[in-house]
Amino acid sequence: VRWWARPTPGHYVGYEYRAGCDETYSLDIRAGERILDMTCEEFSTSSARLAALHFSAARALMPRLRDASANSPVRSTYTFVTGDGSGKPGGGRTAMGEINSHHVWGLSAALRSELAEEAASHAAAGSIACREIRVGLPVHGTDGDDGAAGPTDRPISEDVGDLCAGLAAAPDRPGDNGRLIRLEEYGQLESLLREYNVAVDGNVGSLPHYLCEQGEIGGSA
Asked: Which terminus has fewer CB within 10 Å in the chain: N or C?
């Protein structure tokens, strides 16, 4: 979510602090502050912040996915969507953002490996297919844009969302569980949308953007 959300800082309503649209501003890095200016306690907390959020989500969702997979002939899936640590449209890479990105990549690699081994030993019953989409496509535009247009002339975030749906709906394939999918070029995205038989429903309009600024959406995904 950090990758395509508008860079909106938090604000106070009376004495209540309301966080911004996403978790970028929760990394405890102040403007101009350097890594070595932090205390060990501050570094320990800030460097693991995003990985902790991903771990919390996975820990809460995995038991439900196992139950669903155990009672269905179709294997449940879990997909990490990660970025390259470069922030959002118009925003530069921060040192703590880069550290957090690598931390999340490590968590994803560990879980993908564990779940792939588990699936190989327990067949499909109760197992989970886990993959990662690592988005390294360049982002252009101003703070008001939702990133560069993808191969379908829509925001990249929507094409990546369609790819996630294609991964979830795809039948099991040898070597696919635990896969790391790198998106470095638009052509790769086009190819992957075809590979996973993604068909865009023309009846579904574009997703609303930046509703968090209007108080309609809280937190982050």
From this structure: C
pLDDT in tens, 147-162: 455 555 677 778 888 9
User: Could you identify the residue written with the tokens 């052509």?
Assistant: 187
Concatenate the DSSP letters of all residues of 65-90 into one string: HHHHHHTSSSPEEEEEEE--S--STT
Which tens digit of pLDDT belongs to each residue from 88-112? 444 556 778 888 889 999 999 999 9
How do strand 76-82 and strand 16-18 relate by DSSP bridges? unpaired
Render 104-118 in DSSP notation, one character per residue: HHHHHHHHHHHHHHH
Mean per-residue pLDDT over the chain, rounded: 75
Question: Which residue bears the tokens 């990490």?
Answer: 80
Element spanning 131, H or E: strand 128-135
Q: Where are the beta strands (DSSP E) in the chain?
A: 11-13, 16-18, 76-82, 128-135, 180-183
Token readout for 87 is 């922030």
d(CA 129, CA 168): 9
Does residue 155 sit in helix, strand or coil? strand
Distance of alpha carbon 25 from alpha carbon 47, whole angstroms? 13
Residue length of the chain: 221
The radius of gyration of the chain from alpha carbons, rounded to an integer in Å, stands at 19
Quick one: tokens of 197?
A: 């038989």
